[in-house]
Amino acid sequence: MQIPLTKRFKLKHLFLAGVIASLLACTTTTEKKESSDVYMQLGVRYLNMNKLELAKENLEKAVAADSGNLQAHNALAFLYEKIEKYPLAQEHYQKALSINPDDLGIQNNYGRFLCERGEMEKGLALLNKALGNLLNDRAWLALTNAGICQIRMGNRSAAKTYFKQALLLNDAYAPALLEMLKISYLNKAYWPAKGFLQRYVQVANHNAESLWYAMQTEVAIGNPGQARVYQNLLLEKFPFSKEAKQFGAVKN
Predict the structure, then answer these.
(1) The pTM is what?
(2) Percent of the chain at pLDDT above 70?
(3) Are 95 and 73 in contact (CB under 8 A)?
């Protein structure tokens, strides 16, 4: 039985209309994803420049254009951390993790975040998951974060193992060098502490914490003159830090 010509024309018209609608939907979705990526890249750039308001504006536009943009959620979570809006940070980390539970960057960042917020076991579980991934070519990041998590749990020996492994993979990774400086000093291994200090200053600028431990290490090995140099730098560059306040640099 043949379909009447007019009916065949209508069916063909409906089919073409459906194809066109589908293509338009695909185009719209693609455009949204591309727009989201542009906003995400701008947001990350502003975040690196510490222009937080502009970063927030662009990253929010990125997730509005594409709620499945994992990297935008990751960056927005980090931004909310910086401005101490921790519930919002956690919300975006969780969203990113739900998009891709196996993403190494999310596992590392969210694991670190959880450890810093006191959820040590959950944080370590994510960090160890990242470490168990054979495709992780920047494992020193998760190793260092796991070590810091162990420090918070009072496990200095376990932390030291993590930091040493991190430095085997990247011997110039400043956060791991600083942590080994601190552990060595606290373990009264003052000359190794000085060695880690020398390696640290070759790859990073001092912060208040590194100057504090540098000063204490020089005092411990009998170099009061060098200790005063570090003390003066601390008071000059970081007068409002908690380390400087211990010298009465900021009067209440």
Answers:
(1) 0.83
(2) 87
(3) yes
